Amino acid sequence: MARVVILGITGEEGLWVVDLDAGTAAPLTNSADASLQPIVNLRAAGATVTKGVNVAVTVKSADSAYSGHFDG
Length: 72
Known about the structure:
single chain; 72 residues; alpha+beta; globular
């Protein structure tokens, strides 16, 4: 199973590549190719695109997540 996620945060431009096995997150700096461009376009129009993820929640800090608290 893939353990790399492309992530975008509401209100922020750009996307991130998160590699869970390596424990890294980095901005996606190359331009979107033909397969990713439709997602970029949908996001710009305000859509939320989810595939292969069953939980995604923003939190104020890592400490909040480790404490079991999240903004609901």
